[in-house]
UniProtKB/TrEMBL annotation:
It comes from the Bacteria. This is Class I SAM-dependent RNA methyltransferase. PANTHER family: RIBOSOMAL RNA LARGE SUBUNIT METHYLTRANSFERASE K/L (PTHR47313), RIBOSOMAL RNA LARGE SUBUNIT METHYLTRANSFERASE K_L (PTHR47313:SF1). Residues 62-160 form the THUMP domain. GO terms for molecular function: methyltransferase activity.
Length: 394
């Protein structure tokens, strides 16, 4: 199986509602999208091309290379189709692999059983051809095989990512209720920020939004923070391709940049965590951190910039009545201190959002985990917005 040089269906997955931002990224890298859907996109590329995608994408979760599409009505048919594949040319008999799945078949009551059938087929095939059984388990840090099985239609993939791409690798200390890095990147991409004007992030928590903003502005890609992917554990992998792509990432970093990113939080611990995460990401010198109440955040004058809040929703943290007052104060702060800016509030609580006291010009849909969220955009006019002159009819 010359998978590194053979084009096949490749599925790039992402969290719900991140697909539009993933599509932007994929097109910017020069790839043609065959199909898009709410949780990803489909391409037709080689496994070697998957290496570039793994290193570059901010909003993706997994990159899945299709080995075979087939029909299977039950576990026995699934096994027969898989045991007939040349797994010995893909997985080292002395190596290790894991199996993941997305299964919706009436004969399967637990995905673990489907995973077991996949594992048995691979192990039995390799043992038959090589005389040795490869090890397998739940760790996704080596070769990973993924099964998609709906009704009688099945696809078997190599998961070229392994561990999820949605975690970008620099956040060693997560902090309380952190926003996933891929979501933070999508949230920033949804704003009006031009990656040159000020980016202000009060209530910064563990600093993910501010750090992702700095990474975007300096063109630092997630592949700079990670040295292990699923594709590295497939037979035929050429490590020089990986290192060549990584050299390109380093060359593309914008080093001399005049950038204003401000991150504040009332918690000293949160700011310390943010600093450490920013250091790991190599952007700590680009972000001004300060311990203060959000209302004391110093917003650069001159307009043209964004201020982004990710306040508590009342789901996991905080008390609802206290948060009502907080949301009102956030609205007052944006109205009084952020004139000329675009203001954004990311929240999973529509009732609290009403306390902001400003009319949103846009409501952008996201999910944070399983929580239905909105990114509310406010155009914060400097003074009174001038009305358009009325047409005078003769």
């Amino acid at each position: 199986m010359q998978v590194f040089h053979t084009k096949s269906k490749v599925i790039l997955t992402c969290n719900k509602r991140l697909s539009p931002y993933l599509q932007e990224e994929v097109k910017a890298l020069g790839y043609t999208i065959v199909r898009d859907f709410p949780t990803g996109v489909e391409l037709n590329i080689t496994l070697t091309e998957c290496i570039k995608l793994n290193l570059n994408l901010r909003c993706a979760s997994q990159i899945l290379y299709c080995l075979k599409s087939f029909k299977a009505n039950n576990p026995e048919e699934l096994y027969r189709e898989l045991v007939d594949m040349e797994w010995e040319s893909l997985i080292d008999f002395s190596g290790y692999f894991s199996v993941t799945s997305n299964v919706d078949n009436p004969t399967i009551t637990t995905p673990l059983f489907a995973n077991l059938k996949v594992k048995d087929a691979i192990v039995d095939r390799i043992k038959d051809k090589k005389g040795i059984r490869p090890n397998s388990g739940s760790d996704a840090n080596k070769a990973v095989v993924h099964l998609y099985w709906k009704d009688s239609e099945a696809d078997i993939f190599l998961d070229t990512s392994g561990e999820t791409l949605a975690k970008h690798g620099y956040r060693k200390i997560p902090g309380k209720a952190p926003m996933l890095e891929a979501l933070a990147a999508g949230v920033i991409m949804s704003t009006q920020w031009d990656q040159k004007s000020p980016f202000v992030n009060p209530m910064c928590g563990s600093g993910t939004l501010a750090i992702e903003a700095a990474l975007l502005a300096t063109n630092r890609r997630p592949g700079l923070f990670r040295m292990n992917y699923g594709f590295m554990h497939i037979l035929g992998y050429d490590e020089e391709v990986f290192f060549a792509e990584r050299r390109i990432l380093k060359e593309q970093v914008i080093k001399n940049i005049d950038l204003t990113i401000i991150a504040t939080d009332l918690s000293e611990d949160a700011v310390e965590v943010s600093r450490k995460n920013a250091q790991t990401a190599g952007v700590d010198t680009l972000i001004t951190f300060e311990v203060c109440d959000f209302a004391e955040t110093k917003v650069p004058e001159g307009g043209k910039g964004v201020v982004v809040f990710n306040p508590e929703y009342g789901e996991r943290l905080g008390v609802h009545s206290v948060l009502e007052a907080t949301y009102k104060r956030v609205g007052d702060f944006m109205k009084q201190e952020c004139k000329g800016y675009f203001g954004y509030i990311f929240t999973g609580n529509p009732d609290l959002a009403k306390k902001i006291g400003l009319k949103a010009t846009k409501k952008i849909e996201f999910y944070n985990g399983k929580l239905d969220c909105r990114m509310l955009e406010y155009e914060l006019y400097d003074g009174t917005r001038r009305a358009e002159p009325k047409e005078i009819k003769a």
